[in-house]
Amino acid sequence: MTTTPNPAEPPSVEVMYCRRCRRAVNTRTGPSGVTYVHAVEVRGETVDHRPDPAPVTEISDPLIECDFCSAPDAAWIYRCADQRTDVRRVTARVVDAADYQARHHAARTRRTETEHGITQAWGERWSACAGCADLIEARDLYGLIRRVVEAMPAKLTRGNRLVRVRGHLHDTYTAVFDTLAPGRGRIEPGHPLGVWPAPPEGAP
Ligand SMILES: [Zn+2]
Ligand SMILES: [Zn+2]
User: Fold this and answer.
1) What angle do CA 26, 30, 31 make, to 5 degrees?
2) In the chain, where are the structural domains located?
3) Which residues surround ligand 2, an ion (CB under 5 A)?
4) What pLDDT does residue 86 have?
5) Distance, CA 203 to ligand 2 centroid (Å)?
6) Residue 69 contacts by C-beta under 8 Å, 6 or more apart in sequence?
7) The complex's ipTM?
8) Distance 46 CA to ligand 2 centre (A)
9) Each residue of 99-143: pLDDT tens digit?
10) Which superkingdom, per the lineage (predicted)?
């Protein structure tokens, strides 16, 4: 009974991968319908082709990278509430801004990007490498943000951009941490969605 999804939630997003490069693809919805973008492009890398999306279960030997720091060979799958971000304006529904300010002694710059009205669906599943998983297990939000920022291309974190990037990550990861489901699945060959431990009998 503990895993019954909230019926008010939008239908969950299927985990999609690209047939060409076998890497993860993110789903976006906008005025022109559903579009796809390589997950690594969302994290600032460039890819030389358009995604050719298919459910991950239809991709043989997908390259499962860490959804946080992009490291290859993600080891774990975490599940949390599906999260949608308006790409034009980052929603901050779960951000504890006071906490952020108290820790950093600076007001957070809340910028809005002037892109089209596109919604990024992050989906319910997040893959994590061993290093990021350690920080997730410890619920170390700031440690995770630091690790991800350090792994990003320098051009994305130069000067004022660093503030914005940290703000995005803080919003997104706070929602991940707040809605994290118990347990995690271990990624194994043939099990791109993770092998999950059986829930204990009579769990509340
Ligand atoms: Zn591709
Ligand atoms: Zn990672």
Assistant:
1) 155
2) 16-186
3) 66, 68-69, 71, 129, 132
4) 64
5) 30
6) 129, 131, 132, 147, 148, 151
7) 0.94
8) 18
9) 344 444 333 333 333 345 667 777 788 999 999 999 999 999 999
10) Bacteria
